[in-house]
Structures are given as structure tokens and as C-alpha cells.
């Protein structure tokens, strides 16, 4: 009878080790993704090195679902640059083009006016009440490149949150039940 209890304990120990290994692997995958994201933030100089175009306001240049790669350096922002702006009090950044740059000589400050290529009016209607220009602090980054339609998964998950939870659960389950 002693060998049966030893075998049961041995099987329990193996299963515990396998489960622990799978949880550690899941943790490493998540940690790796965070480290890559933070590394990209350092390299590009922006808090968000990658964004997804959420609306049709920049068509035909950028389509809904395109992924934009951003950077921010010491080069001046000029009219014609495509930027991602974050307006105070709004959660979702906006991808639009700078149409005017206003440099105040007395204060050495620079102000920007943006507009979506597909929009009839400039973005003053999107800015906060009484705000006519953006400051540098509102600009998250300039577009450095894009990947067409690669962000559709993000769009689908933001419009249908249940899809996000199903995919996250399926991914976690896959990591936990994989043997290698």
C-alpha cells in the first residue's frame, strides 16, 4: 500500500509543477509584452508608440483600423504633420493633421491648430470650451509610419468587449494547458 500513496503523491507533485510552470509562462508572456511596450516608449519618446485609427476623419490617407507608429523628438512640429493629440478631459486620442502653427515671439510658445483630412472644419469644435489652439503638451506624437488595417482586432474588441474577454480567456487557457 505504501507504493500506491507514494505514486499518488508523485502524480500530485508533477501536476503541481506543471501548473506552476504554466502560470510562470503566462506571467513571462505578459511581462515581456510590458517590457517591449516600455522599451518602445523609450525609443520613440512618446507615451503611446502605437495607436489605431478609430474614425474616418483622416480618409483617404488613413483608414479606420490602420495602425500608426508614432515618435516624438526635438524636431519642430510643422503644418502638414500628422499628429496624435490628447485633449484635456478626453480619454481617446485623436489622429489629425496640423494645419496652422502659431509661434508667439514674446513668450517663445508655439500653438497648433489641427483638422481631420476628411472633415469640413478645423478641430476647434473638439477642443475644450474657450480653447482655440493646442499646446505641445497636447501632442502625443507624430506619425512615422503605418500598417494598413492591422488594427481591426482592436476596433472589434473596443466595440464588442465580450470578444476581448473571450480572446483573453482563450489565450490564458491555451498557455495553461500547453505542455511545452
From TrEMBL:
Residues 40-142 form the Peptidase S24/S26A/S26B/S26C domain. Keywords: Hydrolase, Membrane, Protease, Signal-anchor, Transmembrane, Transmembrane helix. It is found in: Endoplasmic reticulum membrane. It is a single-pass type II membrane protein. GO terms for biological process: signal peptide processing. Pfam families: Peptidase_S24 (PF00717). The chain crosses the membrane at residues 20-37. Its EC number is 3.4.21.89. SUPFAM superfamilies: LexA/Signal peptidase (SSF51306). Its main location: endoplasmic reticulum. GO terms for molecular function: serine-type endopeptidase activity; signal peptidase activity. It catalyses: Cleavage of hydrophobic, N-terminal signal or leader sequences from secreted and periplasmic proteins. GO terms for cellular component: signal peptidase complex. Catalytic component of the signal peptidase complex (SPC) which catalyzes the cleavage of N-terminal signal sequences from nascent proteins as they are translocated into the lumen of the endoplasmic reticulum. Specifically cleaves N-terminal signal peptides that contain a hydrophobic alpha-helix (h-region) shorter than 18-20 amino acids. PANTHER family: SIGNAL PEPTIDASE COMPLEX CATALYTIC SUBUNIT SEC11. Belongs to the peptidase S26B family. This is Signal peptidase complex catalytic subunit SEC11.
